[in-house]
Amino acid sequence: MILSMTGFGKAQNQFKWGNVVVEVRSINSRSLDFKMRCPSRYSGYEAEIKTLASKVLLRGKVDLQLNVDRGAGESTSTIDIGLAKSYFKQVSNLAEELNLKTEGMLQTVLRMPEVVRTKEGEIDETEWEEVHAVIHEALTNAVDFRANEGENLRQDLLNSLAELRRYLQEIELLAPERIETRRRDLKKKLEDAQMTAEIDVGRFEQEMLYFIEKLDINEEVVRLKSHCDYFEEIVNSNSSQGKKLGFIGQEMGREINTIGSKANHSGIQKHVVCMKDELEKIKEQSLNIL
Fold first, then answer.
1. What is the separation, in whole angstroms, between the first and last Cα of the chain?
2. What's the rounded Cα separation, in Å, for the pair 279 and 97?
3. Low-confidence residues of the chain, pLDDT below 50?
4. Are 71 and 98 in contact (CB under 8 A)?
5. What CA–CA distance (Å, rounded) separates 121 from 197?
6. SS3 sequence of 80-148
7. How far apart are CA 211 and CA 185, in angstroms?
């Protein structure tokens, strides 16, 4: 089953102590590139969450956002009185020097950094298990999204592969015509040469055979067909193997390039260009496959 590396999953649940919402987004990447945004009280669990994501999503650039709304019940705010006094004294001195009014100065001081601190309770085992379950659900939903996207990718890959094979069939039909045309041209040149000079016919025929063999693309066609069959087998397999599909695509490209270099035929060259276009689509799609 083909899985895309592009995915989105969301899960949420309401518990006695608060509401939890988790969103997961992923795009293609060579390895797992994990980033998490969460309340500071959960930052200590980042390694555990990353391990879970690596087991579920395996690969990709993953962005996980954990939002927890605990309400006002379990948070307590405290004022750093010493820091507030220090700020107040400095602000008062500044206001006196600038001959400014000091009304509302206390509100200003309370908004200054680290004066008011919010302290939240410790996370107990039950709370973490509930949050963990929501995270796992969001990751699972992201996998389902990847599977749906993967089916679309599979259809696109098979369509491009079918087009590539169609152009290859056209090339196979043109190849004998090209060889025969080249044989007639060489034969005519031999006949013309014999009218004006002594020619070593045996040597000339050897050169002609060598030249025709250099134009022969049968081996490349056979190998390209084999690569196409293997590519289709991997696409329809039960596992998602994006890297392997990329490697097969590279081998397909080598055979197509060799066919193009040997073509010496305008019709074949046109089909080679079309095959390269389809192969480029295949390579681009393969990059997004897990």
1. 10
2. 75
3. none
4. no
5. 104
6. CHHHHHHHHHHHHHHHHHCCCCCCCHHHHHHCCCCCEEEEECCCCHHHHHHHHHHHHHHHHHHHHHHHH
7. 12
227's CB contacts (< 8 A; 6+ apart) are 248, 251, 252, 255
What are the tokens at 133? 């379950």
For tokens 């599977």, name the residue.
Answer: 147
pTM, two decimals, is: 0.74
The CATH class that applies to domain 7-73+124-146 reads alpha beta
The torsion angle over the Cα atoms of residues 108, 109, 114 and 116, rounded to 10 degrees, is -80
The Cα 106–Cα 84 span in angstroms is 9
- Angstrom CA distances, 72 to 7, 39, 76, stand at 34, 15, 8
User: What tens digit of pLDDT does each residue of 101-151 get?
Assistant: 777 787 888 788 777 765 555 677 888 999 999 999 999 999 999 999 999
Q: Which residue shows structure tokens 């044989």?
A: 183
The full set of domain ranges for the chain reads 7-73+124-146, 77-119, 148-286
* Beta carbons of 3 and 150 less than 8 angstroms apart: yes
Q: Are 288 and 242 in contact (CB under 8 A)?
A: yes
- Report how far residue 171's alpha carbon sits from residue 174's, in angstroms, rounded to the nearest whole number: 5
